[in-house]
Amino acid sequence: MQTLVKKIAITGGTHGNELTGVYLVNKFKANPNLVKRGTFETLVMHTNVKAIEKCTRYIERDLNRAFSLKDLADPEKYSYEDLLAKEINAELGPKGSADPKVDFIVDLHTTTSNMGISIIIDNDNTLTWQLAAYLKEREPKVKIFTWKGDTGDAAFVHSIAPNGFAIEVGAVPQGVLRADIFLETEKLIYHILDFFEKLNTKQLEELVGTVETYDYLELFDFPRDPEGNITGMVHPDLQGKDFMALQYGDPFFLTFEGETIRYEKAEESFAVFINEAAYYEKGFALCLCKKKSVKIPTMP
User: Fold this and answer.
1) Residue 47 phi, psi dihedral angles, 5° rounding
2) Helix H or strand E segment including 129
3) Hey, which CATH number is domain 7-212, 3.30.300.180, 3.30.70.3400, 3.90.70.10, 3.40.630.10?
4) What pLDDT, on a 0 to 100 scale, did the predictor assign at position 4?
5) CATH class in words for 217-289
6) pLDDT tens digit string along 25-73?
7) Are strands 251-255 and 245-246 parallel, antiparallel or unpaired?
8) Residue 61 to residues 64, 75, 126, 173: CA-CA distances in angstroms?
9) Confidence (pTM)
10) Strands (DSSP E) along 37-98, which ranges?
């Protein structure tokens, strides 16, 4: 394997009320030896400091939707998060460059949904998938979710680098720090650092075969009246059941009048980001996906 990684970034606080990433970055800044390895540099950074200070998701717009190439190049985009995205892009990228400042970005998130430990991927790059498969091998409970949702052109923080993904761990309320979630995320980070060290020292056994993934199908909204008001809730039989198979006729939503709205698609799917608090403003209740076995791409 000829791929060498010289610098990676671990980012937290992209959403200022997701405290696991915020406090892990604090820990790594205070104890840099924890993320120091012999063959590459690890940069740790808080991405949205103002939102962290206010313990809110963002100030003016979602920073994790501000990194499309179109938005980064648009001089008319000048909200706080748009300007911040351009600063971060200059520090870690620039996006699309043949010689970016970092080779890989791991962006740390939490979710109010019961997602367990999930990796969110929106690129097909070999190094990203080799690492995802490596993590799945060492932590079988890890779920790999490929996202093609509300972002269009890849607009996440980690899209600045040629390789990267987000880590989503939950369920944890917004603005709350949970020790178990913190420790699970920290453990995954150390696996990531081990992967890159093994890669650079040619001690990594390249993974072949397939890996299980959950691929995006569609975003699904709550039931609403003609004025757009929510008229039902995620059904109790579905709440907290992220990555559970949905079959035709399964309970889906429960109206305020007590009527069960059932899943009506013929094909099996799986629900993720179920009742995520941050997605109410985006207008969806959950994301539907399909389970697949994906061939792990091999290194050039």
Assistant:
1) -90, -40
2) helix 126-138
3) 3.40.630.10
4) 85
5) mainly beta
6) 999 999 999 999 999 999 999 999 999 999 999 999 999 999 999 999 9
7) unpaired
8) 9, 16, 31, 20
9) 0.95
10) 41-46
